[in-house]
Amino acid sequence: MNQRGTEGDGGVSYRRALRRPEFAALYVARVLSDWGDQLARVSIAALVLHQSRSALFAATAFAVSFLPQVFGQALLGPLSDWLPRRMVMIYCDVLRFAGLVLLVAVVGRGAPVWVLLGLLFLVELAGAPFFASSRALLAEIFTDRPLFLRANSLLQMSFQVNQVAGVAIGGIVVAAFGTQQALWIDALTFGVSALLIVAFVASRPAAHARTGVGLRGWMAEVSKGVAFLRKDVATRSLMIVAWVTLLAFIAPEAVALPYAQVHGASTAAGGVLLAASPFGAVISVLVVSRWSPSVQVGRILPMALLLPLPLLGLVFNPAWVVAVVLFVLAGVFQGFMVPLMSTFTLLSPDQMRGRLSALAGSGFALIAAGCWLAVGALADLTSPSLAVTVSAALTLLALVPVWRTWPRRELAEASARAYS
Fold it and tell me: Which of 68, 92, 321, 401 can bridge 125 by disulfide, Cβ–Cβ 3.0-4.6 Å?
């Protein structure tokens, strides 16, 4: 089989995916939501820092903004299956718009720090089901599976760019317009996102009617998702690979600024180090997306195993320029996340697709937060280079049992059915 295409997908391209008005609107809405989330975090962190004069409180603002991803996705994930997914996304945007307008009002009255952090938490919580719903909706928009894979790769590539650009843009907006105006701009991103979804995304029925009643019924629905992941070896294995490799994903970004500082480099060099891994990931997505679905799925585990290897080179504590090259090389092997996420979505039953995506996402966010803290603490206790080396070694060790139990036959059969 031609590795650069699959039967009938020779014309698949990003442009072809964006020609679908529904996906074009969904893509812009997702990008705006990414920027809006980053801008909210930067704005509130800057405001908290100004009021408290405490770097710890400012860092707490970022931590508070990530907590809803952990608990909100897991607990609110069933909404993506019980309600029409388009409706969930619109409600999320409207609630975030209203929350930010309220934030502007309390900022103008000089609200205390705890009120700001509480409102930020609620704004982020309101958006928790947005991305789970959008991922599930994407599979409904594209019944042409190679085109679905290409659309998903575009979203993943944009996410990688927004990881760095979003914070930078947020900082520029806050510096240029001030906190209150930045919050108004932030609210506008969610308002435009909602309008795009209303105007261009078709209404579809809910995937699954709610069967439980009250809190016990709600938790029973969440438990059904957990039970499915425990039982289905293919989807569970994909989720575990994503979780296990997080340490190697995060380590380069977590130590980028202190690595530059230790080597006597400028803040600009730290920015280059920070962007190196996402830059490599963008290159990887462009390459991986040209392979056929079967080849992409077959290379998920090999690429995951290769990901930590360049980072082991930091054991020699090289100059920051060399570290940039190693970070880029590690990023180049991150492209396996595109077929991993796409295949996970397609292997999930439609009536559970929203909550399964949310459960995987909540575990991803929880582990990511722990990895950031662990790598940062280790870098303080030892050195940035050693922290990255240890992270890479631990990732390789964790992947050994995954490699030994990897369900190659089951995954190949399931993905062949999913992409047919």
Answer: 68
Q: What is the pLDDT of residues 330-365, one digit of tens each?
A: 999 999 998 999 999 989 988 888 889 888 888 888
Q: Which residues contact 170 (CB under 8 A, 6 or more apart)?
A: 35, 38, 39, 41, 42, 43, 182
Kindly report the length of the chain.
Answer: 420
- Give the C-alpha separation, 356 to 372, whole Å: 24
Record: fold of 17-144+162-207: Growth Hormone; Chain: A; (1.20.1250)
Cβ-in-10-Å burial (0-12, 13-18, 19+) of 327 comes to buried
Residue type at 22 in one-letter notation: E
Radius of gyration over every alpha carbon of the chain, rounded to an integer in angstroms: 21
Tell me the domain boundaries of the chain: 17-144+162-207, 224-420
CA distances from 334 to 189, 249, 262 (A): 29, 8, 27
DSSP tally for the chain: helices H, then strands E: 20, 0
Pair 407, 234: CB distance under 8 Å: yes
First vs last Cα of the chain: how many Å apart? Answer: 14
pTM assigned to the model:
0.79
Backbone φ/ψ region at 54: left (φ over 0), alpha (ψ -120 to 50), beta: beta
| DSSP annotation of 352 | G
